[in-house]
Specification:
single chain; 114 residues; mainly alpha; 84% helix; 0% strand
């Protein structure tokens, strides 16, 4: 059975992919959405990689990369919102998911590092 961070980061990646498809087709926005796609899907990819970590330190390192990608994703989402590519409703929903993943990652990293 998958754990919460694996499930949430994968679901978030699906939302990011769909958002980027929308930005490209409906808004004709290609540059920022490419950055968002890279960072937003990297969160889950690194979480998945952490599940096969060779050591506790390797596990924490992969989750720290996910945490950094979460910060970058929040930046791109904020920029897209500030430039009116995302409505308040679109932004609030996906940004809240990103913050939830960030909190989960911080909690897991603190617990594992203690």
């Amino acid at each position: 059975m998958e754990n919460a961070i694996t499930q949430k980061s994968f679901s978030f990646a699906v939302r990011i992919v769909n958002l980027c498809k929308h930005l490209r087709s409906a808004k004709k926005e290609y540059l920022l959405s490419k950055q968002l796609l890279r960072s937003g899907t990297s969160i889950g990819a690194n979480v998945a990689e952490s599940q096969q970590a060779q050591s506790r330190a390797d596990f924490v390192a992969k989750l720290n990369i996910s945490l950094k990608e979460t910060a970058e994703t929040k930046y791109w989402l904020s920029l897209l919102h500030a430039t009116q590519y995302l409505t308040d409703v679109e932004f609030d929903s996906i940004y809240a998911d990103c913050v939830e993943i960030e909190k989960l990652l911080v909690s897991i990293i603190k617990t594992t590092s203690a």
